[in-house]
Amino acid sequence: xxxxxxxxxxxxxxxxxxxxxxxxxxxxxxxxxxxxxxxxxxxxxxxxxxxxxxxxxxxxxxxxxxxxxxxxxxxxxxxxxxxxxxxxxxxxxxxxxxxxxxxxxxxxxxxxxxxxxxxxxxxxxxxxxxxxxxxxxxxxxxxxxxxxxxxxxxxxxxxxxxxxxxxxxxxxxxxxxxxxxxxxxxxxxxxxxxxxxxxxxxxxxxxxxxxxxxxxxxxxxxxxxxxxxxxxxxxxxxxxxxxxxxxxxxxxxxxxxxxxxxxxxxxxxxxxxxxxxxxxxxxxxxxxxxxxxxxxxxxxxxxxxxxxxxxxxxxxxxxxxxxxxxxxxxxxxxxxxxxxxxxxxxxxxxxxxxxxxxxxxxxxxxxxxxxxxxxxxxxxxxxxxxxxxxxxxxxxxxxxxxxxxxxxxxxxxxxxxxxxxxxxxxxxxxxxxxxxxxxxxxxxxxxxxxxxxxxxxxxxxxxxxxxxxxxxxxxxxxxxxxxxxxxxxxxxxxxxxxxxxxxxxxxxxxxxxxxxxxxxxxxxxxxxxxxxxxxxxxxxxxxxxxxxxxxxxxxxxxxxxxx
Length: 563
Hints:
With 563 residues, the protein is mainly alpha-helical. Helices cover 60% and strands 6% of the residues. It has 27 helices and six strands. Strands 3-2-4-5-1-6 form a six-stranded mixed beta sheet, sandwiched between helices. The longest helix is centred in the middle third of the chain and has 20 residues, at 341-360. It is elongated, with a radius of gyration of 36 Å.
């Protein structure tokens, strides 16, 4: 049933003075309650025939007596719909109920209180007031939610019986909201024809859900609408969760390039859809998305099972590419609910500057489009286009994109061109030494070509700094820190080198040098190289300790036991 039809029917129901019972049913999370509240709030100024309204969730309600009182407790004036309602509403209900007794009834209630002086006013009133409270429920618009989550002692048949009485004897209009395919609704299904007048099946499209849930105040909002529809997302709770997360990062991306804005919004929408998939087997798991890699390009030679092929097609249709640093950070944001703002700001600046630079010459990305978006037999055209564009844009291409290009060329038996691009890349960017240090590259697992790895290793070694072990350790002590090069130099030294260093210095300098080297083994997240430094230093101290009894005692104070 279309959203327009449901909206028209709800407006008719609200405006009509006829006592009716209406059911809105549909899948969990589809937005039944959200839509009802939205239409109700829009109709409160003249679009509702009743003067009072009560919303009741049956979650945990265990008896008719409790339900009757909850109805009274939650009754408000229609003008207060959508407003924050406090204790004063309950007090107003009490006053109105007492007034409804008339003068004689009120005097009788007062007399009852005087007859029972030894108990509290509340205890005296409660038994009488429970009955009076429910009697005040008439000419009221009532919404009953969560029928399937009621307490075990409250039957659906009893609820229907009460609703029938409210409709027939109290001139009330009642709306039921509940989820289809839930347990505990058998009695309702068997008896609903005796009570229900109108039944609406709430099953909006993704476009309609976006219309229901999302605002359209700016371009970023419009992007989100687009991606919600692309993902065929119809769970309002998830849509609103995505909207809130976008709202958290919007101040950071609002002034960035539109391409980067899209990347952030698109990623958050996808990761939320996958993280909250709730057993939907045709929606990929978030870990699969993050590791999909070259499989999305058709360059992964591993056999793909049926389920993962469905996931792959969804990601391809959505336009998802390889996972970058921003995507990894945003996936953590979705899982944890918070984001490392300093890291996020830094990544956004780097990517935004990169986009601005690429706008000056984006031929490389356009060249890849002839591969992605065509089934033409145009291998020569594709290879030539990518090859020429790569040469022009070599200074802007990442190691991961180099590997992707080389992998494609080798798959097409264009090994000569692949080797030429590797040689060009290393030669042109030789001054960027850390670029070739793949040990610290976040996408190390995405760089696989053996010749590329060899070339990077050679390039990194050529620029190696040749400071002595002693110079590096002294520098680290002075600066109270170290660089990647420092760690690399220390890790390459032998145990004998450390032995010679420790034997050649004396005084406080010796203590500081030994402690600095050993400390690398104490860090919780020590790298492989850092652990090697600590182990070699410890082995050198072990050798020194074996030289004499006094040295055995000396090395013990550094935590080195020889026995």
